[in-house]
Design a protein that fits this description.
It is built from three helices and no strands. It is mainly α.
């Protein structure tokens, strides 16, 4: 009798948990990881493109600055112009990479917020489902206990009438 009640209790507890809910949570996390990776890959790709373009322009500036000049006095202006071009180039590159990073951060924040809302909704739905099952099981148990008590009382009453 105790073994049967224990098995019944274990089965009842197991039925409270929704295995589909666990699968949905895993799928949601995998989807979030996929989307997060896409954001990082796009940002990394764009950053590499910016740095590649910057390197090509820097090498072009260097090539231009090292050309032979007829008048030695031109070298001072060429080197000054080269330094200014390099400074402007590095500033633009830093701004562009900063914009890419900021955009990736914004997209990541939005994704995390969306995932948090989805997870909260799923947890709330699973908790409500489990609560409904517990309430139903408690009501059934109460109804059965009440019926058993009533039957026992009726039997005791009948036995008392017979012996009187």
């Amino acid at each position: 009798m105790a073994t049967q009640n224990t098995e019944s209790a274990v089965n009842n507890i197991q039925s409270l948990f929704n295995p589909q809910g666990n699968q949905d949570a895993i799928k949601m996390m995998a989807s979030m990881n996929e989307r997060m990776t896409a954001i990082f890959v796009a940002a990394g790709t764009r950053s590499v493109e910016i740095m590649s373009k910057t390197a090509k322009e820097a090498l072009s500036n260097l090539s231009e600055a090292t050309q032979v000049r007829d008048d030695p006095s031109e070298y001072a202006k060429v080197y000054s112009d080269f330094a200014q071009k390099q400074m402007d180039l590095m500033t633009r590159a830093a701004q562009n990479v900063g914009e890419v990073t900021q955009q990736a951060g914004t997209e990541t924040k939005e994704l995390a917020s969306e995932a948090g809302e989805d997870m909260s909704d799923k947890i709330a739905a699973n908790a409500k489902e489990a609560t409904d099952k517990i309430t139903s099981a408690a009501k059934d148990a109460t109804d059965k206990a009440t019926a058993n008590v009533k039957n026992a009382a009726d039997k005791a009453g009948s036995a008392a009438k017979k012996s009187a």
